[in-house]
Design goal:
This protein has 6 helices and no strands. The chain has a domain at 7-63 and 97-118. The radius of gyration is 15 Å and the shape is globular. It starts with 6 loop residues before the first helix and ends with a helix. Helix 1 (7-15) packs across helix 3 and helix 2 (18-33) packs antiparallel against helix 6 (104-118). The protein is mainly α and 120 residues long.
Length: 120
């Protein structure tokens, strides 16, 4: 019988590729724009990306502070949250961007890019 791989270690390994991490977060944001996302899932996605991109490159103390910063910024309201999230992502080598909404075609392209990057 073929054994399956545990999902979390597989996901973290895939997320070590910054392009895959960016696509992964973009997918969650696109779902949120469509109203299909449970708002509690996005912070988990951010923490998974941090586990893949941040923890290996930071001391234990810096990693702990970075996660605390995420928790604090996610509890904020308003414009400061966007800037804080952009800064938080920059420390992981990622950035927030704005794209033209091309409707369903844009969402399909993001999913296809994610699959291509992850070689799924």
């Amino acid at each position: 019988m073929v054994k399956s791989l545990p999902y979390h270690p597989f996901l973290i390994e895939q997320l070590k590729d910054p392009a895959y991490s960016a696509g992964y977060l973009a997918l969650f944001l696109n779902e949120q724009e469509e109203g299909d996302l449970d708002i509690g899932i996005f912070p988990s996605a951010l923490k998974e990306v941090f586990e893949a991109l941040g923890e290996p490159n930071m001391s234990a103390d810096d990693a702990k502070l970075h996660l605390e910063k995420l928790d604090a910024l996610l509890s904020q309201n308003g414009m400061a949250t966007i800037y804080a999230l952009a800064s938080w992502l920059k420390a992981l080598g990622l950035k927030l961007t704005v794209a033209v909404d091309a409707g369903d075609e844009q969402i399909s392209a993001n999913v296809a890019e994610l699959a291509e990057v992850g070689n799924l």
